[in-house]
Amino acid sequence: MNSLFDSLKPYAELVGRLLISIPFVLAGWEKIGAYAGTQAYMQHAGVPGGLLPLVILLELGGGIAIIIGLFTRPIALLLAGFSIVAALLFHAGSPDQMQQIMLLKDFGLAGGFLFLMANGAGRFSVDAALR
Question: Rounded CA gap, 10 and 13, in Å?
């Protein structure tokens, strides 16, 4: 049974990187299209709107880097930290059930990124090709 899992590992790593990154790539792209509204939302939450370009860079650029497996470990650590901070700033403390679900979703994503940081991108990645 372990040989089956071992043979599937490189494919699972690739699909896992894709699935964990898609929300970040889409969110970063959407922030470009809704720049002013996103900036206002950030400021309403007490986050300086001037940080939006960095948020877009991390979500869009970091998400793409994780998908292709480039600088996976440091970017995964950044995205884990970003997910935790975003969860606490935008979803914590609300009695609304949807906000609680979003909080836990962000914590779950952070956990997945920490696994990536600990284990790397795997065989089908730019990181592996550069070794």
Answer: 5
Burial class (CB in 10 A: 0-12, 13-18, 19+), 72: buried
Parent domain of 77: 2-121
Confirm whether 129 is domain-assigned: no
Question: Cα-Cα-Cα-Cα dihedral of 5, 9, 14, 16, to 10°?
Answer: 50
With both helix axes pointing from N to C terminus, report the angle between 35-44 and 2-33 in degrees, rounded to the nearest 10.
100
For residue 127, is it within any domain? no
Report yes or no on 66 lying in a domain: yes
Mean pLDDT within 14-24: 98
Distance in angstroms (rounded) separating the CA atoms of residues 22 and 60: 9
**% of the chain residues with pLDDT over 70:** 99
pLDDT at position 2, please? 86
Contacts of 91 (CB under 8 A, 6+ apart): 99, 100, 102, 103, 106
The predicted model scores a pTM of 0.94
Q: Is the pLDDT of residue 41 over 80?
A: yes
